[in-house]
# Entry
Amino acid sequence: MIESLSEKTPDGEVGALLRVLDGQRRHVLGILEGLDAEDLRRPVLPSGWHCLGLVQHLTLDVERFWFRAVVAGNEEVIRGLTSGDEAWKVGPGVPAVDVFDRYRQETERADAVISVTPADAGPAWWPHGLFGEPHLHTLRDVLLHVITETACHAGHLDAARELIDGHRWLVLTT
# Structure
């Protein structure tokens, strides 16, 4: 499980957005708790993705891409980016715990970038080949985009988990 944000969480708007993102990150990992390795790799939707692949996608294509590449402009990360759906593919010999640990580590790296970047700071790098002209102009925009994408994928994981074993993350009753 992702630990709660530390005392290093920024104040104000960025801190509030980071707390919302942290809640979505905890949801991603929480909905998968208790699944065995086979279930984590079992596709349940026609598109064929599985839960581990989605977590790896969030690690590489979301957290690493948006914060360390786009916001921070980390040249090593930018050079290492892949195209296509490679991030969704987890090798058969890769233990689930490694995928989850990489996600946690990448969220910590992302938080380090976020905590030193002003809300109005523009991207240090932009993937023109993927997206054309920039449509996210500040850290604030990137945070909102990542919150939305993470929440969307948390919902995908909710559906997958319910199809796998009937477990639901949040059930509100009256």
In short: The mean pLDDT is 93. The two ends are 29 Å apart (CA to CA). The chain is about 60% helix and 0% strand.
